[in-house]
Amino acid sequence: MMDCKKIKKDLVAFLYGELREDEKELMKAHLDACPDCKRELQHMKEVIKGADSLQEDIEKAMASVDWEELPSRITEAVFEKEAPLPREPWLAGISRFLFQPKLKHVYAALLIGVLLGSIITIMVGLLKLCLRRKLLSLENHGWQVFQDSCFNPN
Amino acid sequence: MEEKREAEHEDIYILVDKIKEGDREAFMTLTSLYQKKVFLLAFSFFRNKEDALDIVQETFLRLYEKVRMFQRGKNFQNWLLQIAKNLCVDYYRKNYSKSREWDRNKPIDEMNLPVQNSYDPLGSSDLREIISTCLKKLAEKQRMIFVMRHYNQFKYREIAQILDISLGTAKSLHFKAVQNLRGLMAPYLGRQL
Fold first, then answer.
1. pTM attached to this predicted model
2. Mean of the per-residue pLDDT values for chain B?
C-alpha cells in the first residue's frame, strides 16, 4: 500500500491526467482501498468543478472580442509607436550570430579537431624525444666501443 | 505528427524573420495567430476583459521590441506567453495588489495559507462568484499556474518552460493552488471541503 501522504500530493496531477500510466494504476489501486484518499479526491473534484463554472464567463468574453479587427488595431498601434525597428547594437548582433544554436555542431567539430591535434602533437613530440634518446645512447655506446678498442686492444 | 509540428515551427520562424525586417503583414499574421492564446491567459488571470485586451496589445508591442532576441530552435508560443505572463504579473502588482505589498518579494513556492476559520458570507450562492473571489486570493504564481493548467490547458511541461521553473515545482505549485482554493472556498460554501 502506498503512502497516503504521497498519494494526496499526486491527486491533483491525477485529476488533470498528468500521471504516468504506472503511477495512474498505483493511484487507482490505492483509491479503491483507501476511503480517506477517495474522500480527498471528491473534495478536489468539487474545487475543479467550481473552476469549470468560470468557463462560461471566459467563453462570453472571448465571443465579445472582435478578433478580425484586433490584429490590425494592434499592428497600427505598434508600428505607429515603433515605426523603425530599434537598431540592434553591433556587439549584440555578433554575439547572437556566434551563439546561434545551429553553430553548435561546428563548435563541437572544432573542439574535437583541437583536441585531436593536441593529442597528435604531444604523441609526435614524445616519439621524437624517445628516438633522440635512443640515438644518443647508441652514439655513446659506439664511442665506448671505439675507446675500448684503442686503449684495450686485448 | 512530429514533421507537421516542425513545419509549423518553420512557418513561424519565417514570419519572425520577416518581422525582424519590419514586415507589417507578417506582424499582423502572427498577431492573429496568437492573440486568443494571450487573451485567454490574461483574462483567466484578471477576469476582466479590458485588462486582458491591454495585456494582449502590450504583449505584441513587447514582441516587436524584442523580436531580434528570439532565436530559431526556441518554441515561439512559449516565448510569447512568457512575455505575456511577465506583463500580467507586473500589471497585477501595479494595479491590483496595492493592499498586498508584502506579496511582492515572496519566493515563488511560498503559499498563502487560507484563514480556515474566518466565515465570510458572500451573500451569493453563485459558485462562479465564489471561485472567482477565491482565485483572486491565491498568490500570483499559484494563480498563474492554476489558470494556465485549467483554462489554457497547458501541460506541466509547457508551464515549466513558460514560467522557467522545474517540472516538479510546476506540479507542486499546482497542487498547492488547488489545495488553497479548497481551503478558501470552504467558508464561502459554509462547510469544510
1. 0.67
2. 82
